[in-house]
Design goal:
Its main location: cytoplasm. With 422 residues, the protein is of the alpha/beta class. The protein contains 13 helices and 16 strands. The strands form four sheets. A seven-stranded mixed sheet has the order 4-12-11-10-7-5-6, with helices on both faces. A four-stranded mixed sheet has the order 1-2-3-15. It binds pyridoxal-5'-phosphate.
């Protein structure tokens, strides 16, 4: 059996796709280790970790076993009035490995939903404190937090095309993306806008929401840890909560288990997703401090107002437990550090090309930023012809390999990038 591509083209939406001019989609038959097996027999090295999720690669025996064992017990059970071992074990692990003040865990079904939950937590918290006027989010330009309405409202207004949804979208506050680069210090001028805004309008601001250290889908920008540390202090000074969206950065991607650790800070609310199950299925989590949780529950509602049907899905929790164990028991720091130095070394020569604006790498993230947007369908086909799977966007051609990728496999990716971009 092969995939019916005509049916696909005529009836199926793919992410951010048009039904009028559908670019080619590649039928994948199976995946193993760091490779995708196309139906036509070609094998591609996966430089995307399936949108940054598959830390351990595909078809991982430990994760398969966890799913199979859990399947024999129960695939799902409601979480209202019921609990189960996979969820309890997962939440225990999350409380243990995240910064100490984060003590309460809300299991959500996707990254976007965990951001919705984080925003609702912040709003309910201030409502309970008798300050319902603290209802705005302060977000960074170039940020990305998901596609549902609440999450979309704190994404970059331009790339998120807020004007399309203007009548239905909550209006929040934005400051420019951090100008100070990762590894650099932060000058006063870099913090001026956010300082002024917090000083003037903290009375209406519930929380600052940001992606710590790496702004992902909004531009793959790496910014100064000092910026993050200073924003944490500003939030304390002006009594505003800090929401760290670690959905892309969590579980070691930037070289620290959580990107907040680069700045030695802890947020009041943290969102996790993407790599939580090692890329096996959808699951996310929102963690918060005792202060936030107690505040919410002392308020008018007396409860936190959220409860998804598939909350705490046992199958997803069991796989997440196996994925976290596999990560923590393995030498992930060494692997991510080795990927970083190889990416830096092999992508560096590309800066000499007149088409290339910037080259950067942090942890297991390697980015080539072009002067002009790339034609995705064309470059994707050229990459596939070279046995490599990447999904560039805008001016960015980047890779986020699974941590288990071997040097010669990563070299295949970086040399394809070099050949096509230089
Ligand atoms: C991917 C992503 C999200 C959204 O997660 P979904 O699972 O796609 O809903 C939110 N925030 C960040 C930083 C992300 O990278």
């Amino acid at each position: 059996m092969t995939v019916d591509l005509d049916f696909d083209r005529q009836h199926i939406w793919h992410p951010y796709s048009s039904v009028l001019s559908a670019p080619p989609v590649y039928p994948v038959a199976s995946a193993e280790g760091v490779h995708l097996q196309l139906e036509d027999g070609r094998k591609l090295v996966d430089g995307m970790s399936s949108w940054w999720c598959t830390l351990h690669g595909y078809n991982v025996p430990e994760l398969n076993r966890a799913a199979e064992q859990q399947l024999g017990k129960m695939a799902h059970v409601m979480f209202g009035g019921i609990t189960h071992e996979p969820a309890v074990e997962l939440c225990r692990k999350l409380v243990e490995i995240t910064p100490a003040p984060l003590q309460k865990v809300f299991l959500a079904d996707s990254g976007s939903v965990s951001v919705e939950v984080a925003i609702k937590m912040a709003l309910q918290y201030w409502h309970s404190q008798g300050k319902p006027e603290k209802s705005k989010m302060l977000a960074l330009r170039n940020g990305y937090h998901g596609d549902t309405f609440g999450a979309m409202s704190v994404c970059d207004p331009i790339t998120g095309m807020h004007h399309l949804f203007a009548n239905n979208l909550p209006q929040h506050l934005f400051v420019a993306a951090p100008e100070c680069q990762f590894g650099e210090t932060c000058e006063e001028q870099h913090l001026e806008e956010i300082t002024q805004l917090l000083r003037k309008r903290h009375g209406e601001i519930a929380a600052v929401i940001l992606e710590p250290i790496v702004q992902g889908a909004g531009g793959m920008r790496f910014y100064s840890a000092e910026y993050l540390a200073r924003v944490r202090s500003l939030c304390d000074e002006y009594d505003v909560l800090l929401i760290a969206d670690e959905i892309a950065t969590g579980f070691g991607r930037t070289g620290k288990l959580f990107a907040c650790e680069h700045a030695g800070i802890s947020p009041d609310i943290m969102c996790l997703g993407k790599a939580l199950t090692g890329g096996y299925m959808t699951l996310a989590a929102t963690l918060c401090t005792e202060r936030v949780a107690d505040g919410i529950c002392r308020g008018e509602a007396g409860v936190f107002m959220h409860g998804p049907t598939f909350m705490g899905n046992p199958l997803a929790c069991a796989v997440a437990n196996a994925s976290i164990d596999l990560l923590m028991q393995g030498p992930w720091q060494e692997r991510v550090a080795a990927l970083e130095s190889q990416l830096k070394q092999e992508l560096a020569p590309l800066v000499d090309s007149p088409r290339v604006a910037n080259v950067r790498a942090l942890g297991a993230i390697g980015v080539v930023e072009m002067h002009e947007p790339v034609v995705m369908a064309k470059i994707q086909q050229q990459l596939v012809d070279r046995g490599v799977w990447l999904r560039p966007f805008g001016k960015l051609v980047y890779t986020m390999p699974p941590y288990v990728m071997q040097p010669q496999e990563l070299r295949k990716i970086t040399s394809a990038m070099a050949e096509l971009l230089a």
